[in-house]
Amino acid sequence: MNHETKRGGLGEPIVTTGDFHADLAKLAEFxxxxxxxxxxxxxxxxxxxxxxEDVGRKND
Length: 60
Prior knowledge:
Blueprint: H1 20-34, H2 40-48
């Protein structure tokens, strides 16, 4: 939801693969494309690349 324009929408379905970082990269790419000003999606992309710790994820 873009609160400034009051617009929202849905993208293509994302089918998870079991590869946490690859799936996270897909999510980060989608959200960053739609909300480029939102810094939290930069963090998701960095987590997907393994550049920062996966906060809140259980270690296997």
